[in-house]
Write a structure and sequence with these properties.
This is methylmalonyl-CoA mutase. It comes from Streptomyces canus. Its cofactor is adenosylcob(III)alamin. This protein is α/β, with parallel strands linked by helices and 602 residues long. It folds into 3 domains: 21-50, no CATH class; 93-404, Methylmalonyl-CoA mutase (TIM Barrel), CATH 3.20.20.240; 474-599, Cobalamin-binding domain (Rossmann fold, 3-Layer(aba) Sandwich), CATH 3.40.50. It has helices spanning 20-33, 41-46, 103-111, 131-134, 153-166, 182-189, 198-208, 220-224, 229-249, 254-258, 271-291, 318-332, 352-368, 382-404, 408-414, 416-433, 473-489, 503-519, 530-533, 544-560, 588-599; strands spanning 49-50, 56-57, 93-98, 116-120, 145-148, 176-180, 212-218, 261-267, 302-306, 337-339, 494-499, 523-525, 537-541, 565-569, 580-582.
């Protein structure tokens, strides 16, 4: 039965109206039971989560959480999408990355769901002279090509344009990007940007290849250096503005210049932040176009890439789940093209299975989940709209500081941007070290006996500029030490978990301690006696009540049996014989590093 609004049946009529003050009171009551005395807005603050860039996620959003009008899809400020139809006609562009000259892999991808190619060329990729070989058998009028050639962008672009001409591809049929990104190359290598080839390349695209974009604003360099979402956005807008200046000073109109740019952003497993980031990016670029006097030219072309920072070497199968969430967020956020990195990306060159899973991720989301059938499905969510606005504000502030200091090239040259990104990464590293930001399969629920996944090494990437970081790098170093010890001695470093009392008293902390030590490659031993375990260190695991009764005696006994270091799983106390404490929120990396050092694991 369908009840229409004018049928006279109001299902909520018998219930009293609720208001925010009542909700605050209910929240305060619940928090009071856990020992927190708060009231009013302080109750809401107690349930809020701090994000980077000074943002906070609150537990409740209502119609009072106003955000600027996002407009309509395809119209300024383009928050809801660069095109009125969004991706409803055929889904987003499934763009697969290729960094080696493997024509078979390219054709296999295109025959099985991939709709465009992202070719890394030049240093760290496909030799420019081999582009024709790699694209042999590819219908270049049907499959767009996005080049990424770093400092060799001019020669790579000329080679691709030569292939178009050689194969009789009409200029109006060519689609994709030539990938010129002098400032991105400066960020990656520290080399001074060369803008000389950019203008003639952009002018040729504008006149002969209207479907090609000459420049790419690649924000991955700032994301991979540890930058926050606002820093990634701010740096990308500063780069885009620098390119607009170069092109318009050379005689191109603002409309022509905007049409030459494509923006590349990272998509992470933080679903809502990724959605908001892509929406905020469009708002920011629309504002730039508006200030330049061409509001209709501000529709940003977006290429979203699954974040390399979150891809792990250990338990790489979990990367499939991370990539799925990131791809979903990129699609919901309105990206025009999406690249799903294979789950073994951090290990080297992906194999055929990993590439198949990567391309099928988008296929399932588009064809089976019908995710693209609704334009801007997150639009109207009070949380998403508010987060989009707050992130755009934070990014605009960061962009203005870059402009104040001379622009993108200047802050790269001076090292100011490197310092900003390093500061952000240092703060995030603390969260990773304390497991406030968990990495499943690495810092949480590690699989110590997993069989290593081995891949052929990927080409060496350009270096000399901003660093490339990964979330798992601190734990990866610890696991590598454990692996070396295993190879040298035939066994891993061990810690004995001394459970005190019945299972109900110790299971929670035994499980906690086992996960903690395995994150550093240390094998927990729970069976038998301490003397038979082969361990030199021990961790007491039980309830607070039993610790009061038996912790000191247990520590003394274990020390007498040869234990060199006694941990206690729980909040720090004053127990004689206990050397250190491990607990939720402790610096796991510091604890594990010190433990391996004491064990002589180099």
């Amino acid at each position: 039965m369908t009840v229409l609004p004018d049928d006279g049946l109001s299902l909520a009529a018998e219930f009293p109206d609720a208001n925010l003050e009542q909700w605050h009171g209910l929240v305060a009551g619940v928090l009071r039971k856990s020992g927190k005395e708060v009231s009013g807005t302080a109750a809401e603050d107690a349930l809020s989560t701090a994000l980077e860039d000074g943002l906070r996620t609150r537990p409740l959003y209502t119609a009072h959480d106003a955000a600027p009008d996002p407009g309509f899809p395809g119209f300024a400020p383009f928050v809801r999408g660069a095109r009125a139809e969004g991706n409803t006609t055929g889904g987003w562009d499934v763009r697969q990355r290729h960094a080696v000259a493997d024509n078979t892999a390219v054709l296999t991808d295109l025959e099985n769901g991939v709709t465009s190619l992202w070719l890394v060329a030049g240093e760290g990729g496909v030799p420019v002279a081999s582009l024709g070989k790699v694209l042999d058998g590819v219908y270049l009028d049907l499959a767009p090509v996005a080049l990424d050639a770093g400092g060799q962008f001019a020669s790579a672009a000329q080679e691709l344009l030569r292939l178009y001409d050689e194969r009789g591809i009409d200029g109006t049929a060519a689609r994709g990007s030539l990938g010129a990104d002098p400032l991105g190359h400066q960020a990656r290598t520290g080399e001074a940007p060369d803008f000389a080839p950019v203008v003639p390349l952009a002018r040729r695209c504008a006149e002969e290849y209207p479907g090609l974009r000459a420049l790419t604003v690649d924000a991955l360099a700032y994301h991979e250096a540890g930058g926050s979402a606002a820093q990634e956005l701010g740096a990308s807008i500063a780069t885009g503005v620098a390119y607009l200046r170069e092109l318009t000073e050379a005689g191109l109109s603002v409309e022509q210049a905007c049409a030459q740019l494509e923006f590349r952003y990272a998509a992470t497993a933080d679903q809502f932040l990724t959605i908001a980031k892509l929406r905020a990016a469009r708002r920011l670029w629309a504002r730039v176009a508006e200030v330049c006097g061409a509001p209709g030219a501000g529709a940003q072309a977006q290429h979203a890439v699954v974040s390399p920072v979150m891809m792990t070497r250990r338990d790489p199968w979990v990367n499939m789940l991370r990539a799925t969430i990131a791809t979903l967020a990129a699609g919901v956020g309105g990206a025009d093209a999406v690249t799903v990195l294979p789950f073994d990306h951090a290990l080297g060159l992906p194999d055929a299975f990993a590439r198949r899973i990567a391309r099928n991720t988008s296929t399932i989301l588009v064809e089976e989940s019908h995710l693209s059938r609704v334009t801007d499905p997150a639009g109207g969510s009070w949380y998403v709209e508010r987060l989009t606005d707050e992130l755009a504000e934070a990014a605009w502030r960061f962009f203005r500081t870059i402009e104040r200091d001379g622009g993108q090239a200047a802050v790269l040259r001076s090292g100011r941007l490197r310092t900003d990104l390093a500061t952000t990464w240092a703060q995030r590293s603390k969260k990773l070290a304390t497991r406030r930001e968990p990495v499943t399969g690495v810092s949480e629920f590690p699989f110590l006996s997993e069989k290593p996944v081995v891949r052929d090494p990927a080409p060496e990437q350009p270096a000399g500029g901003l660093p490339r970081v990964r979330r798992d790098e601190a734990y990866e170093e610890l696991r590598a030490r454990s692996d070396a010890h295993l190879a040298a001695t035939g066994s891993r470093p061990r810690v004995y978990l001394a459970a005190i009392g019945p299972a109900a008293a110790h299971t929670a902390r035994t499980t906690f301690a086992a996960n903690l030590f395995q994150a550093g490659g240390i094998e927990p031993v729970t069976e038998g006696t301490f003397e038979a375990s082969g361990a030199t260190e021990v961790c007491l695991c039980s309830s607070d009540a039993l610790y009061e009764e038996r912790a000191e005696d247990a520590a003394g006994t274990l020390k007498a049996e040869g234990a060199r270091h006694v941990f206690l799983a729980g909040r720090p106390g004053q127990y004689s014989g206990v050397d250190s404490y491990v607990f939720a929120g402790c610096d796991a990396v510091a604890v594990l590093t010190a433990t391996l050092d004491r064990m002589g694991v180099s």
